[in-house]
Design a protein that fits this description.
Layout (H helix, E strand, L loop, with lengths): L13 H14 L2 H5 L4 E5 L7 E8 L5 E7 L9 E6 L2 E6 L6 E6 L5 E5 L4 E5 L6 E3 L6 E7 L5 E7 L2 E9 L5 E5 L13 E7 L5 E7 L3 E7 L7 E5 L6 E7 L5 E7 L9 E7 L7 E3 L8 E7 L5 E6 L14 E6 L2 E4 L8 E9 L5 E7 L2 E9 L2
Antiparallel strand pairs: 1-28, 2-3, 3-4, 4-5, 6-7, 7-8, 8-9, 10-11, 11-12, 12-13, 14-15, 15-16, 16-17, 18-19, 19-20, 20-21, 22-23, 23-24, 24-25, 26-27, 27-28
């Protein structure tokens, strides 16, 4: 089974057509908007002494988590998760002596991630440097979210089947797992699985699921008692879709996989947003001029979306000598992220966006590499 991690789109409706028209109108203002900085820039702080780090996620206070490697020994010393608070970095420790990777931090400062020789989910405890393996009897599990109420979201493998899951703590600090349902209608169960890539504070989740009848489709799990699953579908002509981000309002973003047809304007992946109306109306997101492929993977509560835009040669899945440019969809258009910053920035990449629209990113400013927090000015 091939898992597609991090990269959907859908059927045409009247609502989607109106939204697309609004985007087209908004594109006329891109040149003027991109001429001024729309984000302030603040360094998240230096890496721990002797380490090189990559930031991965943030909460709504601007606290950042990431992963660090010791510069003097990148082969035998395990990778270690870290957190940045108020410009100061702290290493979080190892899981049973093995590597750790931080994936999410909630607004109370609790952190979750994956670590160990066989990937296991962990969560921070009241004791600094001590990480709790909250689901030790699973052969392989990954976390992507921790709510302010302590719920942890992610997915795990049972036998040979991947399942989306929510782990809920009790008063004694033990975690109860709730499996998220699969899409119905599959005939051969060995081809059925579900991966949950995103969760929100409202108790919803999004990701993708597979059956032998439909292939892989983006899905949404509701916050009802049964965590009922909704098939978000694919854009006409596409063969698959995946969801990778969602906000607290239930809007979902991701990609669809389109045919590699030389006569089509979209090649490979197309970025998509599904609205939070009853029909989960899809809206296709525009690409940068001249590009043919892209993806969306994060969305704020104001509807600002981060992702990438690129050029793929018609009829292929290749992009010779063309960069993956980090973009933001906002104000009715698509903008290359570095164009929304003050002059001097190059090679800017977005890692995550919080619900307030702050973007965790890294890039090069006047020749120096920086890890930064971008805060919207408007």
């Amino acid at each position: 089974m091939k898992l597609r991690m991090k990269n959907t789109f859908i059927r045409s409706t009247g609502g989607a057509s109106q939204a697309l028209a609004a985007i087209a109108i908004g594109l006329a203002g891109i040149s003027a908007a991109s001429a001024q900085a729309l984000y302030s820039v603040a360094d998240i702080g230096p890496a721990p002494s002797g380490y090189s780090c990559i930031p991965t996620n943030l909460n709504d206070h601007g606290d950042v988590v990431g992963n660090c490697a010791l510069l003097s020994d990148t082969t035998t010393v395990p990778n270690e998760a870290a957190v940045w608070r108020n410009g100061t970095a702290s290493l979080l420790g190892l899981l049973n002596g093995a590597e750790t990777y931080a994936t999410a931090i909630n607004n109370l400062g609790a952190i979750t991630g994956t670590g160990g020789i066989i990937p296991q989910g962990w969560v921070t405890t009241a004791t600094p440097g001590v990480l709790l393996n909250f689901f030790p009897n699973s052969g392989n599990n990954r976390t992507v979210f921790i709510g302010d109420d302590g719920r942890i979201g992610g997915y795990y493998i049972k036998g040979t089947t991947w399942k989306g899951a929510i782990w809920t703590p009790d008063s004694k600090g033990r975690y109860r797992v709730t499996d998220l349902p699969f899409l119905p209608g599959g005939i051969n169960s060995k081809f059925t699985f579900a991966i949950a890539n995103a969760f929100n504070q409202s108790g919803q989740a999004a990701g993708y699921a597979q059956t032998d009848q439909i292939g892989q489709h983006a899905v949404l799990w509701n916050n009802d008692a049964a965590h009922s699953i909704v098939d978000l579908g694919v854009v006409p002509g596409d063969w698959a879709s995946w969801a990778y981000g969602m906000n607290d309002l239930g809007q979902v973003v991701g990609v669809g996989n389109s045919p590699t047809d030389a006569n089509l304007p979209i090649v490979g992946l197309r970025p998509v947003m599904w609205n939070n109306d009853a029909a989960h109306t899809p809206v296709g997101l525009p690409l940068l001029p001249g590009d043919t492929s892209g993806s969306a993977y994060g969305i704020s509560n104001a509807g600002h979306i981060i992702g990438v835009s690129m050029y793929l040669a018609p009829g292929t899945q290749e992009a010779p000598n063309t960069p993956r440019r980090s973009v933001v969809w906002r104000d009715g258009g698509v903008f290359e992220l570095k164009s929304l910053l003050a002059a001097g920035w190059t090679d800017v990449s977005a890692a995550a966006i919080n619900k307030l629209g702050q973007i965790l990113a890294w890039g090069t400013f006047n020749g120096a590499e920086r890890h930064v927090l971008l805060t919207p000015l408007q």
